[in-house]
Amino acid sequence: MIVTLAGHVDHGKTSLVRALSGVNTDRLAEEQQRGLTIDLGFAYIDGGDIGFVDVPGHQKFIHNMVAGVASNQYAMLVIAADDGPMPQSREHLEILRLIGITAGCVVITKSDRVSAQRLAACAEEVERLVEDTFLRDRAVFVTSTEDQSSFDKLLAHLRLQVKQHQQQQQYRPFRLAIDRTFSVKGAGVVITGTAHSGVIQVDGRLHHFPSGQTVRVRSIRTQDQENQQAQSGERCALNITGIELQDLRRGDWLCAAAPTSYRSLTVDLQVSADFPRDVKHWTPVHIYHATQHTQARIALAPGQRLQPNQTARVDLTLDQPIHCHREDRLILRDQGLDTTLGGGNVVFAETHIPRRRQEPGRQRLISANAQPTAQDCLVAALRNGVTDLHHFRQFWHLGEAQYHNLVGKHSLHCHGDLAVSDKLWRAYKTEVMTQFAHQPNTPLRENHLHAHIPTEFRLALLNELVQDQHLSQVGGEYRLLGQKAELPEYLAKLWKILEPSLSQNQVPSSGDLAKRFNLPQNTLERAMNELVKTGLLVNVAKHRYYLPEQLRQIAQTVKKMTALGPLTVRAFRDETGIGRNITIEILEYFDGKGFTRRQGNDRVILNPTIFD
Asked: Closest by alpha carbon to 554, among 542, 471, 544, 543?
């Protein structure tokens, strides 16, 4: 269990950790000289079962304080008896609440410096401070560094919490927020940080954000102990290979799944009750998420203003991309006032900055992702239209088993990562058939379908309608099955004399037909290609055209012959009476359509329904 100590500067957090663990967490020379915690400090007891994170209390180092806090930690609010609650006591408590911590206790320090009356007054002040927070009715401990026994009850309480403090994020892919990077002689690159979810084992592979490089975990220390794995909620030191030290810094992530970076976030923002003014559109803010920090602007709806203690859904336009997931929590601090503005729960994220934030389609996507569970989100997204399953899985940070379980509950039609529900698919098919019915004499191509039918699914829709025998397709053009095209006069005349000449198994070439009708071959072939587009002819090979019905009859002969065994060119030639050269042209055409497949010198049926 990780215990985060929070509180005003010089209220005894570092001394408290030293009394509990024997470790001085002020590791930096500057910290020791100034008697002031600047960066995060760590200590462990009970073989690593309990770890302490000592965060800075001074206002100037709030960003380091935020970096040390994760929502699955246990909070210890530290308040000195002589001062009582101070500005950073209140601000730290607000940050703990906004980040989502729900468990903790209060420790009153320096009790030896005050009278009994002052100690009682401090206890009342603490009670008022935590009255409307997650620390209400939580345990309060009074301690003094002059009396080591004053820590006994606190230690017993923490050890009891270890048994009750269950981590809830292990089923998600592993991810760790980096807070330190350094090199160890003989070992190489080492990073430290808090595991926010999942489990990683020695020799596991992780992706680095923002570089995208893949690293291998050579060894692991958790809670300052050698281990074979690290899991959600633990303080980790990972010895990694595959990346250079200069490519790593605080604010980076190591993730089991390749992390996505986002430039625009939609959050449910709660403005702090202590924030001294209304929040306006385009207010500049600092964004803190785990160890990440960037600057951003708050984008509000036209005419919208947010008052202290108000909650609203807003957009954040980031100066630099960050990595996050659904339900992650952010801390926002005002640039001008250098105070905590509020906190937000991430409900939607985009890799780009949207041009039209109020566009209806975007708002529907946001509403879908704002659903309380991934299952509810998927249902809402599929109801809206095309769903990007890759974005859904990444944003909701789903493990493989969880993702396939969710998606498997739905009947989907997919094109790559894009999916539509079976209900919407059937609606699209009905709409396509309606479009053909309204234009009965006009063949349509894929790009002629109504614009709102997704481009990625049009070809599959049309081909399925062909398989369902609602449409016919020739040369990329589709028409209602059985519909005959109205031919221009010159084609109608040509067709009248051409059709009888092609009503046979062995059809003449276009060159022979050109001689017979006394036409230039190029002119005749152009006309015959027009007839191919109408579905009246099929171009089997160069200079060779067949009637569709004639080809179907030949295909039936092939099926009868292959029912008795593999088909040879000679047997096919003898059965149909077609010359060898034309026999090869027809069989190669059948191969190209996937009707037959060549195996050595023989052929077998591959898809018997193609020419039904």
From this structure: 544
pLDDT beyond 90 at 169 = no
| DSSP secondary structure code for residue 178 in this structure | E
Looking at 260-269, 310-319, 482-491, which range is the least confident one? 482-491
Which of 136, 164, 192 is at the close of a domain?
A: 164
Contact 272, 344 (CB under 8 A): no
Contact between 11 and 57 (Cβ < 8 Å):
yes
pLDDT tens digit string along 227-249?
999 988 888 899 999 999 999 99
Residue 405 within a domain: no
Residues 218 and 244 in one domain: yes
pLDDT band at 67 (very low <50, low <70, confident <90, very high): low
349 Cβ contact partners less than 8 Å away, ≥ 6 residues apart:
260, 262, 264, 265, 266, 324, 326, 395
Distance CA 102, CA 75 (A): 8
Q: What is the distance between the alpha carbons of residues 557 and 559, in angstroms, rounded to a whole number? A: 5
> Domain check: are 244 and 267 in the same one?
no
Express each pLDDT in 191-209 by its tens digit: 998 888 899 999 999 999 9
- The CA-atom distances, in angstroms, between 85 and each of 13, 127, 415 are 14, 10, 58
Are the C-beta atoms of 298 and 258 separated by less than 8 Å? no
Residue 530: pLDDT band by 50, 70, 90 thresholds? confident
Domain count, the chain: 5
Helix (H, G, I), strand (E, B) or coil at 415: strand
**At residue 548, does pLDDT exceed 90?**
no
User: H/E element holding 205?
Assistant: strand 205-209
Cα separation, 350 vs 523, whole angstroms? 55
Buried b (16+ CB within 10 A) or exposed e, 174-206: bbbbbbbbeeeeeeebbbbbbbbbbbbeeebeb
Best CA proximity match to 533, nearest among 413, 425, 442: 442
CATH number of residue 315's parent domain? 2.40.30.10
